[in-house]
Write a structure and sequence with these properties.
The complex is a heterodimer of chains A (about 200) and B (about 650).
Chain A (H helix, E strand, L loop, with lengths): L2 E3 L6 E2 L8 H30 L15 H23 L3 H28 L8 H32 L9 H26 L8
Chain B lengths: L5 E2 L3 E3 L2 H11 L4 H7 L3 H29 L10 H36 L7 H23 L24 H29 L12 H33 L12 H18 L2 H15 L6 H15 L14 H13 L1 H17 L6 H23 L2 H7 L3 H31 L5 H27 L15 H32 L29 E3 L8 H4 L4 E9 L6 E5 L6 E6 L6 H18 L2 H19 L14
Antiparallel strand pairs in B: 2-4, 3-4, 5-6
The chains are: A mainly alpha (about 200), B mainly alpha (about 650).
């Protein structure tokens, strides 16, 4: 018989410490699955476009005047959330609160501008497969933004209640990760529907 | 009591007081309250298993009714429409409501015990995954019972499934039910992935994980990546049917082929997801009865992963007859043929284990060993249809039906029944009856082969699948009669299995901790295991912690009696993903009603969407949001909040 393997007494972190915890892993796993959903949405768009007849694009030269600033606005909100997370870690609660609230407002503006963008469209959900894909993909993204806004609202509330500090803030990190993901998706959706037509795809 | 950020856990040995402390911390509340709020993986696992077996019985009865209709030519027991609903519901039930959930059930029950842990990484998510599965099953069956079951086969091709050709609610029940079920599969898979990487006992480095963990882990990674494809496809179908979108309608520029792509991008990896964990059961169970470790352990683990990687690239072999370009077909044909290599590795490993071992013939052994034979038969017919010209001849005939039943019954049902015989003593503390077990096995084995072996010939003769009757062509009647007789014999075998389970649960001979003298960690705890699983967190030094005395080639031996106590809070140990060195103490959640509440809200949403009662859907959404916020509310007991507050 050999020597017995017993884990030596070691000092271990207790519970989620910082972003270190199973909750963060769980958030990553679910984000991967959500990312796959958008991969399939974009696959559907490119597949349908690639097999469609000429003139399939209802927006051969989509206007960028709303969509581009709106996408940039959403990206900027990611920076705000990042600053907020730093504020929590450094115990600057007002900085955190302000940043999260700002991100919440920026996200809400994004949803409103997307709504305006839909209003300007001359076609509806059932006009053609292009229209269906456009509304489904942007709509699915907006649905994710709305979930993100609810999450951000909860984070604002919990920050205001003083729940988070330099050791315990895993909810903030998980929420921030989700928000960054949603904003990354907005870039991909924007690129597919607004930029690829200018590169000649689907024309 | 507030906890410091760091702590050195006490290391010690087991005692009665220690166990009593743990029981107080881990026991589920009694009665109806505990039933709806339990987060114990063992409760959830048993529920999964029982529910999935109920669906197996339902799907089986549906098959028997069809076999009565098909027992002879030109019979009229069923109308064409009834037959369509029956074969589609049979497929949906077996594939989605039995085959995957039964494996989730076994994995849920066994994983923490195999890994030397006190629970899954996310106990509440685990409960959620079960309750959604139950809700989705009831939702789908509500359709069937109201005459609105799926009626275009389980893979449901458009345009048949489009509203013009299928105006009833049948497809809407199916589409929404599948989206709901997809949530269950996804959250369950996420839980398995994090559990495998973060909650293994100290020392159980990744090369020491049991093969069953490899199987379910691989299947779960695949599910996370591919379930969204089918959820999206079903959601698009529902929009096409109810809101006039044009995703699949060529008249509006849509692509009917996109349905097939999205479905099979999901569907083929799914086929592996419902067999790899069962193959893992055989890889772990068979060696116990051969009295030696699995031959080629690492190769089997790697071939599990390799099968799935190939499995992502073979979906078009379901679409060979759709007129896709030849170059594309050859790629997918080659991948489908190449996938036999990792499968063969596993087959030869099992054969080698039997050959080099000293087999003890128990019922469990018979089920595990017969699986190897059935897998080879099903594999060869699959290999044949991986070739494009052969597939063109055989697709949509009963040859394919024979193939898929050899694969799914052979590599799912047989291992699952074997696994029940194997792990039943652990779950209940009692053996299943071996005499009844022999009758059970031979009836199932004979009935199965009598049913499906002649079916290959039926297919080669050209009989098309999914048609409610057939003309009296030479040979067809006799072959179909044989198949029908076989189906009933097989069903009798399954009935014997259920009888054995019910009888043995009450009167079976008592089994101790380790009745089979098996090597893995679940056999080191009492049968049935206490709420906390392991009173001492074990430390693992090899793949076979309970066989180290006889394998004896290790300098260091596992420690099962001395280790971390973790008995001051409801706590488990997190370890690093690859080496499994202790990494963190996890605070585990108490019983919770949030999962049940969430599922209640989800069900209201889906019923609202189905009936287009938007107020109901909105109310459901409010319940869901409320349940989620209460679930995610940072708790001091889980250390998600700073202790200084309030």
């Amino acid at each position: 018989m050999g020597e017995l393997a017993v884990s030596e007494p070691v000092n271990l972190p207790v519970g989620p410490l910082g972003r270190h915890g199973t909750g963060w892993w769980g958030a990553v796993t679910l984000i991967v699955s959500e990312a796959a959903l958008f991969v399939y949405l974009l696959f559907s768009y490119f597949y349908t476009a690639a097999t469609a007849h000429a003139g399939w694009l209802l927006e051969p030269a989509p206007s960028l005047t709303r969509a581009l600033p709106n996408t940039l606005l959403l990206l900027a909100s990611s920076v705000a959330v990042w600053i907020g997370e730093r504020g929590i870690i450094r115990q600057h609660r007002s900085q955190a609160l302000l940043s999260f609230a700002l991100a919440l407002i920026m996200g809400a503006i994004f949803v409103y501008v997307q709504w305006l963008e839909w209003q300007t469209r001359s076609y509806g959900l059932g006009t053609s497969s292009y229209a269906s894909l456009y509304y489904l993909t942007t709509g699915m993204h907006i649905a994710h933004v709305l979930v993100g806004l609810i999450v951000l609202a909860a984070i604002v509330m919990w920050t205001a209640l003083g729940y988070f500090g330099p050791h315990r803030y895993i909810a903030v990190s998980s929420a921030a990760l989700y928000w960054h993901f949603v904003n990354l998706v907005s870039v991909l959706v924007f690129a597919a529907f607004y930029l690829t037509p200018y590169l000649g795809f689907g024309r | 009591m507030s906890q410091p950020e760091f702590r050195t856990p006490d290391i010690g040995i087991d005692s009665v007081e220690h166990q009593a402390r743990l029981l107080r911390l881990w026991e589920t509340a009694p009665g109806i309250r505990g039933f709806f709020s339990s987060v114990d993986h063992k409760d959830i696992g048993i529920r999964y298993i029982v529910t999935a077996f109920v669906f197996l019985a339902l799907g089986g009865i549906e098959a028997l009714v069809m076999r009565l209709q098909l027992a002879g030519p030109n019979r009229s027991l069923l109308t064409p429409d009834q037959y369509n609903q029956l074969f589609s519901t049979h497929g949906m039930t077996m594939i989605f409501l039995y085959a995957a959930p039964i494996l989730s059930g076994f994995s849920n029950y066994l994983w923490p015990l195999l890994l030397g842990s006190r629970d899954m990484a996310f106990p509440r998510l685990n409960a959620l995954s079960y309750w959604i599965y139950l809700a989705a099953g009831l939702f789908l069956y509500a359709g069937f019972l109201t005459g609105n079951g799926p009626n275009d086969g389980w893979f449901n091709y458009v345009p048949n499934a489009a509203r013009d050709y299928n105006p009833g609610l049948n497809q809407d029940f199916y589409a929404l039910g599948m989206v709901l079920l997809g949530i269950s599969t996804t959250v369950g898979a996420a839980n398995f992935v994090v559990t495998a990487f973060r909650t293994r006992a100290p020392g159980m480095s990744i090369n020491r994980m049991p093969i069953m963990i490899w199987g379910t882990l691989t299947a779960s990674v695949a599910n996370i990546l591919v379930v969204p494809a089918v959820s999206l496809a079903f959601f698009m179908l529902w929009l096409d049917r109810q809101f006039g979108t044009q995703f699949f309608d060529p008249a509006g520029g849509g692509q009917p082929m996109m349905w097939q792509h999205l479905f099979w991008i999901f569907g083929h990896p799914w086929v592996y997801a419902i067999v790899l964990p069962a193959m893992g059961m055989v890889s772990d169970g068979l060696p116990v009865f051969c009295r030696r470790p699995l031959v080629g352990f690492s190769l089997v683990a790697l071939s599990t992963v390799a099968t799935m990687i190939f499995g992502f690239g073979v979906w078009v072999h379901h679409m060979f007859a759709t007129g896709l370009p030849g170059l594309g077909l050859s790629f997918f044909s080659a991948a489908s043929i190449a996938i036999t290599i990792p499968s063969a590795v596993a087959v030869f490993a099992w054969l080698g284990t039997i050959w080099l071992g000293r087999p003890v013939i128990t019922t469990a052994f018979l089920f595990f060993a017969s699986m190897v034979l059935l897998f080879v038969i099903g594999g060869v017919s699959g290999f044949m249809t991986a070739s494009v010209p052969v597939d063109w001849q055989l697709t949509d005939t009963y040859f394919v039906v024979a193939h898929l039943h050899y694969v799914l019954i052979g590599i799912n049902v047989f291992p699952v029944v074997g696994a029940t015989y194997f792990w039943f003593p652990k779950m209940t503390g009692r053996f299943m009856n071996e005499t009844l077990g022999r009758w059970n096995f031979w009836t199932m084995f004979a009935g199965f082969n009598l049913c499906f072996l002649p079916m290959h010939l039926t297919g080669l003769l050209g009989m098309p699948r999914r048609v409610y009757t057939y003309n009296n062509y030479p040979g067809w009647g006799a072959l179909n009669l044989l198949t029908s007789i076989g189906a009933f014999v097989f069903a009798c075998g399954v009935l014997l299995f259920f009888i054995n389970v019910l009888k043995s649960a009450r009167t079976g001979a008592l089994a101790g901790k380790n009745p089979w003298d098996a090597p893995s960690l679940e056999w080191s705890v009492p049968s049935p295991p206490p709420a906390y699983n392991f009173s001492i967190i074990p430390t693992v030094a090899s793949r076979h912690p309970l066989w180290e005395d006889r394998l004896g080639d290790h300098g260091i031996v596992s420690s099962l009696d001395r280790g971390m106590l973790l008995d001051t809070h409801r706590e488990a140990l997190a370890s690093t993903p690859l080496d499994a060195t202790p990494d963190m103490i996890l605070e585990m959640p108490q019983d919770s009603f949030a999962p049940v509440l969430l599922v209640l809200g989800l069900s209201v949403i889906f019923i609202g969407l189905l009936l287009k009662v938007w107020v109901a859907a909105g109310a459901g959404a409010v319940i869901v949001i409320a349940a989620l916020i209460s679930w995610m509310w940072p708790r001091r007991s889980l250390l998600q909040r700073e202790p200084i507050h309030g």
